[in-house]
Each structure stands twice: as C-alpha cells, then as structure tokens.
Description:
mainly alpha, 80% helix, elongated
Amino acid sequence: MEGSGTTSIAAVPLFAVLSDRLGRRRLCMAGALLALLWAFQMLWLFDTGNPVLITVAFSVGMIAFAVLYGPMGAYLPELFGTRLRYCGASVSYNLGGVLGGAFAPIIAASLLLVAGGSWAISLYIALMAGLSLACLYFLTETHLTDTSGMREEERDLLAERGVVPK
Length: 166
C-alpha cells in the first residue's frame, strides 16, 4: 500500500502545476471522469485479495484523487471574489469534506451489507463522480482569470451601499 501514498505525494504537486497550464476545471473534470471509469475496476481488484493488484487499484485511485486535489488549492478561492474568497473557499472545502468524506465509509459499509457485494460501492463511487462532473460542468474556468482586483458584482454591491463610487 505504500506505493499508493507515494503516488499521491508525487502526483498532487504535478497536477497543481499542470492546472496552471491546462486549466483547473479541465483537470478536475478529468479526475472525476477517471474516478467514474475506475470505480468498478478498482473494487474488482480489491476483491482479488492480491496485494500487488490492490496496490495498483489504490495507486490509480490516488492518481484520480490527485488530479482533483492538485488544482483545488487554487480553484476554490478563484471561484469567489476577493470579498468572499476566504469564507467561500473555507466553507466549500470543509462542507465538501464533511458531506463527501464523513458519510462515505458509512454509506459504503451499508451498501456492502445490503447488496452483498462491492459492486454497490462501485456504483456509489461512480454516481458521486458523475455528480462531481455535472457540478464542474456548470462552474467556470478560472486559471486565466485576473483575481487580483474586485469583481464587477462585488463592486456593484459595494457601490449600492455607498462604500465605493459607482
């Protein structure tokens, strides 16, 4: 299993740098698509019980994670204007961690118990990856956006309140 951790350590910074060149949304969508496509193969490899195949399954899974996680440090803050950036990135990251991460093991264990096989967990992973893809589709690309200043909607809001000139 150590190989999968090493894979992640190397891959997260690589995909973070690639997101500066290729785009954050594009990489996140690729990671979600990889997770969707790998969900059934990964659990099948787990079911073999073979340590080498399990390591391969984890390693590819960690690459999908890295493709998503690498751009997140830049992507989430860039989705929000300067006035809301810290709060927006913090809330979205932590709420996603709680809703997506905290309940996933409970759901997976319940699915395994009810369905009697890992295919149900694979289906759950594929559905969550598909939901991620759908959400990413509606987000904007940010990697070439100038985020140094105030966005137009922020300026309009502050102008309405008389904080900045119109």
